[in-house]
# Entry
Amino acid sequence: MANTSNLRVAVIGGGPGGYAAAFLAADLGMKVTLIDPEVNPGGVCLYRGCIPSKALLHVAKLLEEAEQARNWGIEFGEPKVDLNKLRGWKESIVKKLTGGLGQLSKQHSIQFVQGKAAFVNATTLKVTKTAAAGEENLTFDRIIIATGSRPTVVPSLKLDSPRVMDSTGALDLPDIPKTLLVIGGGYIGLELGSVYATLGTKVTVVEMLSGLLPGADRDLVLPLHKRLERLFAAILLNTTVKSLKDEKTGIRVTLDGPNVKEKEKEQVFERVLMSVGRRPNSEIPGLDTTKVKVNQKGFIEINEQRQTAEPTIYAIGDVAGEPMLAHKAMHEGRTAAEAIAGHKVAFEPNAIPAVVFTDPEIAWAGLTETQAKEQGREITVAKFPWAASGRAITLDRPEGLTKLLIDPKTERVLGVGIVGAGAGELIAEGVLAIEMCALAADVGMTIHPHPTLSETMMEAAEVFYGQATDIYRPKR
Amino acid sequence: MSREFKLPELGENIESGDLVRLMIKPGASISEGEPVMELETDKAVVEVPSSVTGTVGEIRVKEGDKLRVGQVIFTVENGTGAVAPSAPVQAAAKPAALTGDASTKSVPPAPGPAPLVAQQPARAASPSRPSTSTGGGEFKLPELGENIDSGDLVRLMIAPGATVSEGQPVMELETDKAVVEVPSSVSGVVRAIQVKEGQKVKVGEVIFTLEGGAVAQAQPARSHEPVEHMSGQQGARLAFQLAMRAEGKTEEQALPPDQPHPESQPFSMPVQLGKVAGMDHDPIPAAPHVRRLAREIGVNIRSVLGSGPGGRIGEEDVKQCAKNALMQAAVAAQTPRGAFVEPELPDFAKWGKTERVSMRGVRRKTAEHLRQAWNTIPHVTQQDRADITELEQLRAKFAPRAEEAGGKMTVTAIALKVCASALKVFPQFNASIDMGKEEIIYKQYINIGVAVDTDRGLLVPVIRDVDKKNIVELAAEMTQLSKKARDRKLTIEEMEGGTFTITNLGGIGGTGFSPIVNHPEVAILGISRSRMEPEWVQVKDKFEPRLILPLSLSYDHRLIDGADAARFLRWIAEAFEQPFLLSVQG
# Structure
C-alpha cells in the first residue's frame, strides 16, 4: 500500500460529508486542508438545515403536546412565544455545535481555511480567504469536493421579495406570519410548515403531485396527512402555483388545480416558503479545467470509491448525487478518505435511512413497497399497527405503523417503514437488520424492551410468521 | 440375448487409453472379473476386467486403437451377466502387473502401490434405497452411504447442453468422509443445472434436469456407487491446509491479498440519478464487515454463495470462495496461458530521474519471444566441462585453412559440428512438441542457430544442414552470417528453421550460465570461456594444466529427461575432448 502519511488533501466544503472526510483523512495521517466560507465547519446541515430545524420542531412538538394535554386533564393556558429568545436558543445550538467542530478540526491538526475555492487544475486550488485580502494558489495530491446543495427556485416564480423565503430564510424566523403558503409538499415544506403552524400561522401547502412526500409509501404518509389536515389551514394536492405578485399586504398567489375552489384561486399570503427541492452546488469555478464530469441534473459523476473522472478529485454528499442526506454524505466522506488512503473500500450500503421529522415522524430504510412494485419484486409486507402497542397508547399516539418488507423465499428483511412518534430513532434498528441481512426470525427472536415503541419491530416480524403476541394476524 | 461390454471408468481425468493387448477372441467364453485387455493410459498400463459373463460375440476394437470410456469393446452372447451393461465403476480398472497372464481366470487383488481407483468399501446397500432418479427428467443426488445426507459440491463435470450418459461421473462431492465422484443414473442432454460449485447439496436434491424430460433409466433400482478417490483438487486443498497449519498461519494470512481479478473494472460511472444508492441492485446478503473482507481479499461478493440462513454470506463463505479461486488459479497456472498479466510497476520517478525509451524492434521481439519460451518450457540446465587441450592444438593447426576459406576456426564453428553429430545420436534434442495434438515432431534435418550479439540486440542466424558440412565450411559460413547480422543484412529466412541453438559467451567470460531454450526448439547449448585449470591426471598421479571449456545445456524437461540430457552433454564434451569421435560416430 502506498504511503499516505504525506498526502496533502483538500476538502472543499465543511458540511457533514466534508468534515467527516477531513477528520478521517487526518486520522489516517494525511495533511488536510478544509475550506468553507463559514467561521467553523458545519455546512447547511448545522447552520441552515437539519439542526436548527430540529430545534424548532422540538418546540413545535412541545406546543402540540401541551395542547393535546387538555385531553389528559392538564391545561397550561395559551402559550406565549418570545421569538427573540426562541431564535437565540436556536442560534446558541448552532454556535455550540459548529464551535465544537472547529475545536475538533484543531485537534485533528486540520488547516481550516475560511474562504472559497476555485480550481486552477486537477491538483491546484485558488483559495480566496474571507479574512485576508487576495488569493492564494495551493497544491494538493487529492481534492474532495463536498460543496453540498442549495434550495431550488422555480424560475417562473422568482420574486425578489422578503416575503418569499427559502428554507434558509424560514429558519431565520423573522416573524410569525398570519398566513404562510408552502410551495412543495416534500419533507422540508412539511417540517417548516409544521413549525410555523404550531407557532400560530395559518399554513397552506400546495403540492403539484397527488400526494405529500412523493416517494414514500402511502400507508406511511396517511397518518401524517390526517394529522396535518388538522394542523394546516389547507393541503392542496395536484395544484400548481401560477404566479406570485408582491403587494402591500402580502404576496398575491394564483393557484390552479382540480381541488382548488374558485374563491381560493387567488389568495394573499403574508409569507411564502419555496421548498420545491435542492440542487447540487457543482458550479465551482475552474472545475471545467479538470476531467470531472457533471451530469444533466448538476450532480458530479463518481464511481464506487467516490472518485470522479479526474483521478485526483473525489466528490461526496449532495453534490455527488441522491439522496441528498447528511448521513449519506458522512459515510461517503469516510469512504473517500479511506479510498485515498489506498484502502479497498466502496460505497455500497444496503440501506440508507430517510427520516421526515414531522409529527408523526416518517422513516424508512432499504426497499420500499413502491420500489418493490416498480421492480416487480415479490415481497411479503408484515405490518404492526401501533394501536396494538401499549407504549403508543400511553403516549396517546396510536396512529403509528411499523412494517417490514420481507423476501418470502429467504425471509430476509429487505425494507422497513415506520410512521409514528419517534420513528426516526426507531428506524436505526431496521437499517441494522437490513445491513446485517437479518431474517424476520432474527428480529422476532430478539428481546425488545417493554413497554417501548421498539417492540413494534419485533411484533411486525412475528406478524410475518402469524404469531404476534399483541395482535391477531393469522398466517396467510 | 446380446449384451455389450463398454469400457468402464478408469479413474479421475482418464477418459481414454490405448489398447495395448486384447486377451479375448470371438467365441471365447468370458466370465465376470476375467481380464479382457491391457490398456495404456496417461498414468499406467491397466488390465481391464470384464463385468459380464458369457460368450464373446463381436469384438469392436483392435490393438493400437484409442479407446474412450463408454465405448463398446465387445458383445456377449448368452450373457448371464448380473451386471449392468455399463459396469459399475468400482469394478473397473485394477492396476495390472504387466506380467499378467491372459489366461489367468481370477485377477489377484490389486497389490499395486497406487491403485487408480480406490476400492469402494462395500457398503450395505440398503434395499429400500430410494430411486436415484424420478421420471421427470431430472437427476437427484443419490444416497451416498450411511449417515451421509449431504456434501459440498467441489466440481461440476457437466454443463447445460452436454450429453450425459448413465454411469458418467457428473460431479465431485466432498462429504465428511471423502471426496466422491457421483455418476449419473440418467441419460440425455442436460438442460439446466440446479446447483453451483461450492454449494452444499443434500441427498435427493435435484442436480440437473434433462431436455425433453426423457429418461433412459435402465434399472431404477440400481444406482451407481459413487467412486471415492483423491482428486487433484482435494489433494491441493489438503496440501494447502497442511501448509497453512505448518506455518502456523490463519487462513486469512495464507490467502494472498491480491486475488487475480477475472474482470478488472476500470472507472465506471453508475447511474444514480433519483435512485437511493444501494437500492438499484439486489441488496447483498452479507453484513458490512463481510463485504469489506471480500473486497480486501479480492473476492467478488456477488459470486459468493451464502451458506447461512436465507443465503446469508458469512466470513467463512468468503474465505471458502477465495480458497476455491486460489485452487482454480493454481490449476490454471499449470496450463500455459495466452494472456500474461503484467505486474504493476512502481513510480520510479519517486527515487530519482528516469528516462522512458520505447522498446522497439529486436528488443521487443526478444522480450516477447523469451517470455513465451520461459512460460511454455519447463527449463532445466545441465552443466558439464570439456577438456579441449588437444582440440586447441588442432584448432591452431587448422586455423589457416579456415582463413583461406574466408572463415575463422572458432570454438563455435567446432561446436556446430559437434552438436550436429550429437543431434544425430540423440534425435529427441532435434525435435519439437505439439501439445495440441499431443505429438512429438522429430526433424530429419539439422539446422543450428547461433546467437550473435549485435548493437541492435540478440540475433540468431541459422546455419542449415550442419551435419552435411565440414568444420572449415561451417567456419566460413558462420563468419559470413555474423557479419551480415552485424551489418543488419540478415533476412528473415536466414533466422528461421533452426532445430537447435548454440550461444557462446566465451568471448566475454564467465564460468557458466542458464540459456533459455529457443522455443519451439527443445534444447540450447551455452558455452562459456575456456581457461587453463589444474586437472587431476590419474595415470600420472599429478595435476596438469588443462584447457577446460564450460558447457551449459538448457533443455525442455517436457520432452527430455535429465539422464538423457546428461548423456547428451557428456557426448558433446567427449567429442570436444576426442575429436576423432566425430569421424567415428558423428
Observations:
- Residues 384 and 460 of chain A are 5 Å apart (CA to CA).
- The mean pLDDT of chain A is 94.
- Chain A is about 30% helix and 25% strand.
